[in-house]
TrEMBL record:
Pfam families (UniProt xref): Methyltransf_25 (PF13649)
Species for this entry: Micromonospora harpali
Gene3D superfamilies (alphabetical): Vaccinia Virus protein VP39
GO biological process per UniProt: methylation
Domain Methyltransferase as annotated: residue spans: 47-138
Name of protein: Class I SAM-dependent methyltransferase
Top-rank taxon: Bacteria
EC number of the protein: 2.1.1.-
GO molecular function terms attached to this record: methyltransferase activity
Broad EC category: transferase
Keywords carried by this UniProt record: Methyltransferase, Transferase
SUPFAM superfamilies linked to this entry: S-adenosyl-L-methionine-dependent methyltransferases
Length: 278
């Protein structure tokens, strides 16, 4: 992984309850864009690795005969089951496991998706394993927010004060980013393209799906965003969580007299690698 950091099961402990409210949505058109690019027609199987609360698994499941969501966090899987039931999606199997546990007897898949999760994994090993779970022509798909800064002009409310929030978290938890029981002084690794090329995948094909929306966020929404993150997971604050939340709410209330924020939702970027046919 990174700098001696070792994964542990507390990485997102308690975050699942805040995830759907706190995280900005992917662009509404990402399912249609991926289905068009890959010719998805309701057949085959989908594997979503590091599926969290089903953010990508549930909307994509209708493009396949069966979907499997894999995540090591029991709270995330509980939320994923609730989301699938709420949306009336019944062709998903949820499996508690790490990516490093694959193939875990799960079989062969037409598409394997990683939605902003691959950076937490032992990438070389996982890429090699996933290659063996895909047929010729099968696809490895990375789903992520586009990262460039977005315009703040014309927004109806102030932008959330993310830098000030990050400084508050550092004051409470220390200057080095927390991740479960450990620390990530250098962040998570990149190099995804090198890893996948080494595993025998061709690509990537890049699709950018426009969001085009302005999202209004309440103080509660921004608090949920903080606690949906690995470096702000509720357990990190221990018995002083309520004190931290009081400081966070005071900061946010001072940043917006009306208690509302606004920001432009980022576009969604799909990067697709394929296995050669034959």
């Amino acid at each position: 992984m990174t700098g001696g950091w070792t994964w542990d099961e507390s990485l997102f402990e308690g975050a699942a309850a805040h995830y759907e409210r706190g995280r900005l949505p992917y662009a509404a058109g990402f399912v249609a864009a991926l289905a068009g690019e890959l010719g998805l027609d309701g057949s085959g199987r989908l594997l979503d690795v590091g599926c969290g609360p089903g953010t990508v698994t549930v909307p994509l499941a209708g493009c396949f005969a069966e979907a499997v969501g894999v995540d090591p966090d029991a709270g995330m899987l509980a939320r994923a089951r609730l989301r699938a039931a709420r949306d009336g999606v019944g062709n998903i199997r949820w499996v508690r496991a790490r990516a490093e546990d694959l193939p875990a007897g799960l079989g062969v898949f037409r598409v394997v998706v990683f939605a902003q999760s691959f950076h937490w994994m032992v990438q070389d090993a996982v890429a090699a394993t996933v290659r063996g779970m895909l047929p010729p022509g099968g696809a490895f798909v990375h789903v992520a927010d586009a990262k460039e800064p977005l315009s703040t002009e014309g927004l109806p409310d102030p932008v959330p004060p993310y830098e000030a929030v990050a400084e508050l978290v550092r004051r409470w938890l220390g200057p080095v980013r927390r991740a479960g029981r450990g620390f990530l002084p250098d962040g998570t690794p990149g190099g995804e393209e090198r890893v996948l090329a080494g595993a025998g995948f061709a690509g990537p094909t890049r699709l950018r799906v426009p969001s085009g929306g302005v999202v209004r966020r309440s103080v509660d929404d921004v608090v949920a965003w903080v606690h949906s993150r690995s470096d702000g997971a509720p357990h990190l604050f221990g018995p002083r969580l309520a004190e931290f939340d009081a400081d966070l709410r005071a900061l946010l209330s001072a940043a917006s007299s009306g208690g509302w924020f606004a920001e432009r939702a980022p576009d969604t970027e799909l990067r697709i690698w394929r296995l050669p046919r034959g």
